[in-house]
Fold:
Amino acid sequence: MEKFNVVVSGFDRYEDVEVNPSYEVPRALENQGLMPLSGDDGALEGVDVTITAVSLPVSFSQAWPMLRQVLDRVHPNVVVATGLKHAARGIALERCATNLRDASNDEHDQSTGDLIPVRPDGPAAYWTRLPLRSILSDFSSHGIPATLSSDAGTYVCNSLFYNLLNWTSQQEHVLSGFVSFPLVNESASHEYGLPLKQQIAAGQAVVSRSVRYFQEPTASDILLV
Ligand code: PCA
Structure:
């Protein structure tokens, strides 16, 4: 059986959010594994996927070094970093990380509006390495509301995403990317946010589709623009 190592990161606590999906979903994935979604005709077969969940502090100086330590230990094939986006109505699949971060430091949560590079020597942006088209089609067949996003912001999420893709660009064969979750909303209206169960199903779909793409890369699975 082919073995896959997957790391799914999130943030342990973000502002005053009571149920943080980016903390809960990685944990659920580590505990439950990849339960196929109902009616999933494309369940992964013949693969043994181990998921390692990582909770990071919302800190420019600590988040990436902590994730990097786990990557060096686990040697993953796929890395999915996640965060919470208050304004997202559904799951936001992030297309690209930009080389821009807010100039405020960790102790200074008051933004001045000034921007500096994440890595002064790095390119302007990196594209995600996750198969977004394939993930989106899985979402749509399972009724999971989602959007493509071209802006992961200038705060800790984008910096982590940028550093992750910079690291990925130096690896032999690793897929990685970033998924933003909306707030958890258990009401049926779905005007803002999604139930946690649906966000966990979305996380499982992201990992399944990425593992399948890792096994069998196809050009049509990558959606860049
Ligand atoms: N969202 C913040 C940081 C942590 C999180 O979950 C961001 O968008 O950068």
Summary: The chain has a mean pLDDT of 90.
